[in-house]
């Protein structure tokens, strides 16, 4: 039967289908609990004259079946989607039969809960492909309720009523008609919705595949272009450097100045290219690093120390809060060095001469990290949400530093996400910014709240 269908389900994979079936099994546990809870309620409070021992027996059978379903889901997964769908159909048919027995022993069509048949029909329309199987299940539900009702009315099987009077023919006809209308109308509505949903999902999946393909192609082109630029830029930089060194005092001052500026610009562009290569390699998962235990303070001191010459060149006071006692943490040194170097370098680049940049470690009972505070140009409120967008640079940042990729913070954010950390930023335009890096604190880390200011570079 399943071979006649083109299997189109709202699930990406067979694992997702198994997740839905597991949810179906868990829903049945609630049903079993509800049945067992209703028995004493009907027996003691409502005084219904019903065969409660049969209801408990049916609940026990359902419990046994659900344990079997649970074991099959957990320990004997099906090999393909067709087998999973057959497994789902077997459960739905079994539940329809169980519902029939429960309704029969709890009042028959007099019981307002006989509409529970429709729950199985709805689940069938959601989980199974095509039109035929859900329609078959809806017809089966209608046949079951009709047959049991006729058997009870003709007294071919015992009738268990909730009231004293016997069911009348007009009541039976009206109740069955209401069930048929609700059953098949509900099936039509659910199937129409699922058809549109699956069609929309198919379009979305197709667009996602095209988008992923274009992203991969863009990254490939991006990385290829960066690598192709790296070699000629290196030649340009070394050539200008050679001209400047070999010419000595031969070149006129204005020409020497132009050569020096060209050399500096080529060095800046080379840095941009290296940044482009780094982010493409990271996004593609080319680089594999192993976290290691380090002394957090020593590591951060070493990273900040690398920015000393840049701070001296710009006449900026670069300071760091030093924690007297060591903290042992497990981090990816290469990734985290990129984060710290990028944030400190950005702070120095966008802080005017004579300003200040402070790197401050922090500790709490649950986390550790560091902040980078500067007295620079700051970031406008409207730009705060955009600074982590690809290639974005605020207008005041472009005015102060013409050269830049807008990729540094993208790389920082991605590294933090993959390493389980967070990054926060607070800024006031014209007054400076504070970037905060935070990680969960490992049990082996040593806590201390004492800090002291240590100046490591000044103009």
Question: How would you describe the overall organization of this protein?
Answer:
With 459 residues, this protein is of the alpha+beta class. It folds into three domains: 2-167; 216-283; 292-457, Histidine kinase-like ATPase, C-terminal domain (Heat Shock Protein 90, 2-Layer Sandwich). The chain has helices at residues 14-45, 52-75, 81-105, 117-127, 132-153, 169-247, 253-283, 296-305, 308-313, 333-349, 395-400, 408-418, and strands at 292-295, 317-322, 328-331, 356-363, 367-374, 422-428, 432-440, 452-457. A six-stranded mixed β-sheet has the order 6-7-5-4-2-8. Strands 1-3 form a two-stranded antiparallel ribbon. A hairpin with a 3-residue loop joins β4 (356-363) and β5 (367-374). It is elongated and about 120 Å long.
